[in-house]
Design brief:
3 copies of one chain form a homotrimer. The longest helix of chain A is centred in the last third of the chain and has 20 residues. Chain A is an alpha/beta fold and about 300 residues long. The mean pLDDT of chain A is about 95.
């Protein structure tokens, strides 16, 4: 076993990441329902979601069930009832006595690591507030690998809220391990924090200047809550919005990604272009999570 | 495959309906837990219920599991979180990447059809507001077939709210395809809308005048919200209420049906009579949904 | 089959209890995931929880799944929607048409018995208000059997709220069937009700006077709501609190139990002592519930 828990993408080496991506590839036919495999039969996963995240929860549930395993979900009402009556340590201690693996999502940074310290079984972090969401990063890398044929030597633009987006921060670190050229496209006030720029090589650009060269355009949501003024938000959001027209000068094989849900940042007219890969990206979460579950359980 | 999606009972031909009812009959022993069949092993159903409907959701879940399939439920909290953050089209696009069939219930008419247009897998309508609820109609027909021995040439009385009841509207159309004689028993103000009477042959009667002749008495709930005045509601509801006494002059093999939940429209003293078939009717939802799932998945 | 439904611990004979405990022991390796057994394959359990109880629900779900069975959960939203629209009798009548066994938790005393009278399948009481919670009592006995080697001739102290605690009342009755010496440690106002003292032999003591002799210390929560005054609560709760220091003079093999969740009544410094068995106790719920499900289903 390469790792017992999966809490942060930074716990993984370059080699660990490649190992998971290759394993995910082997599971892809099973994820698509084309082949049956019951390698996790008799194993039980507990989904402990202390805040809702439909896509992530359902994708873990699908991954587990496609491999023959079982899933127990904590309900929202149970989560809030627990939050009132018991420490997270006690909850995890007990539930780890029942099941074989715990997937946790929690609004507080650090809670997944904390949970892993009190669990008798592997813990997978499905997002802990401003903290980490390593399975998202792995499925992003897998999408790039499948759609671009490699995860090295690519020109990748990250666009939108680069300041607060957990998804972007983890992805930049991972992309950097694989020698990609990274472009940043963000409004003033939502730029990538300085500390990242010390670690990773990336430059701030205008989309128009790089659209003909880039292989990947990774779009994230700009959240209204970040702006003191609605008018200001609308102006910014409007100019960080992708349409089919935006992509006219793009390379044939440019792919557009988005962690979803999207609001307005990608126009629906992009959906029908050959560039749109955000729904496939959501699907790729299934084989990647199958690989991770297989890794910690077998 | 006779149909890819099941959105409206009107999408089905007379022959399609008979095909499903016969298939349901073959699954009945499995539905009763008397036989095991794993014909849907490895398949996954997603229940997307944007409003609660315990009976329908549980009956689909039972149907899928009795055939060896798996079920993923969206929680109420997830539904409301999605409703705020994403279009129905995007939700369906993503979830149809995970699973093999989607069952949707939604408060807005037309939403099931809309969902099917964005899904990569079959969509089954489990009720869309004032729209359709085709599996309810099929289980109603199945109940009549099993309890009366046929679904043709019967005298069938529909009683209660005939104006707003989606269940009644779909059932009338289906019964009409099979040459039944239809009687309508409803208070003024809750009569069957004119447009139906142009399509189907049915006459308004008093229960007392037909009780000795009818084979089926299908009762539906009269909802308080339909009346501007509580006093008026009570008067009407009181006179559209079935008791054991009401049925004294009925034929021996008259069956009483109800889509449930009932409130006061059928007295509990009817439960013990040989006429009461509304709980069996709920059970018959299982083999009928098994047949539908089998039809779209295999 | 020794019993069809499991509503109250008092429905079971001494012999029935021993039979379940022995059966649980045979399932323990399966509960730990060390062995696979699909003896309940094809069977479906419905969890009808009208109030949240994560531990109990998840433990039943684990038990059923470890034996190859399936589980259908009613959601909290469905529960409240049912509560508004339908009698419990009708709900149980319908759901017992779908599944093979019902586990019910309900805030009203007597509701589990009532449900069993309207069900076509076995009903297991998972707590009905001030009423019974028989599977908790059985797992408490099982914990004692496993950790003390026997359930007879022990010195057992029950501490905390002995007046209102349903858990304590059922446990005392069961322990009494097996000739144990029972000590009671409770604040004034939360003493064991008189009627129990007529049935069972037990004496009120101070913990300090018996700590060197007892084999089991069963701690329960003292609830703030029982006190008219917060200051009074704090004083009482503070003096009914176990720490590692409290246990210094205890026998080597004293076990400390707690039905969980705990708040402050057991300090976390006890967790690391050899005496702490409350998390194991939670685990033991799984084999015990497996035994009960097997008993009513096979």
């Amino acid at each position: 076993m390469r790792f017992r828990h999966l809490i942060s993408i930074e716990d993984l080496s370059r080699d660990d990441i490649l190992h998971i991506l290759r394993k995910a590839e082997r599971f892809e036919d099973v994820a698509r329902g084309l082949k049956k495999l019951k390698v996790l039969e008799g194993k039980i996963l507990a989904n402990l979601f202390f805040e809702p995240s439909t896509r992530t929860r359902m994708s873990f549930e699908t991954a587990m069930k496609r491999l023959g395993g079982e899933v127990i979900n904590m309900t929202a009402q149970e989560a809030s009832s627990i939050a009132k009556g018991e420490t997270l340590a006690d909850t995890v201690r007990v539930i780890s006595k029942y099941v074989d693996v715990i997937v946790i999502r929690h609004p507080l940074e650090g809670s997944a690591r904390f949970a892993s310290e009190h669990s008798e079984v592997p813990v997978i972090n499905a997002g802990d507030g401003a903290g980490q969401h390593p399975t998202q990063t792995l499925l992003d890398l897998y999408t790039i690998m499948k759609e671009c044929g490699r995860i090295e030597g690519l020109k990748i633009a990250l666009m939108g809220d680069l300041k607060y987006s957990r998804t972007v921060h983890s992805l930049i670190k991972a992309l950097n391990m694989f020698n990609n050229e990274i472009y940043l496209i963000s409004p003033e006030g939502l730029r990538l924090p300085e500390e990242f720029l010390e670690e990773v090589k990336a430059e701030e650009v205008n989309l128009n200047d790089v659209i003909e060269e880039i292989d990947v355009l990774y779009v994230t949501r700009i959240q209204k809550e970040r702006f003191p003024d609605e008018e200001e938000y609308r102006k910014v959001a409007g100019s960080y919005r992708i349409t089919a027209k935006t992509l006219e000068r793009a390379k044939d094989n440019l792919i557009v990604m988005h962690p979803l849900p999207r609001v307005d940042e990608i126009d629906v007219d992009v959906d029908k272009t050959k560039h749109a890969k955000y729904f496939d990206q959501a699907f790729y979460g299934v084989p990647v999570r199958m690989a991770i579950l297989h890794e910690v359980l077998i």
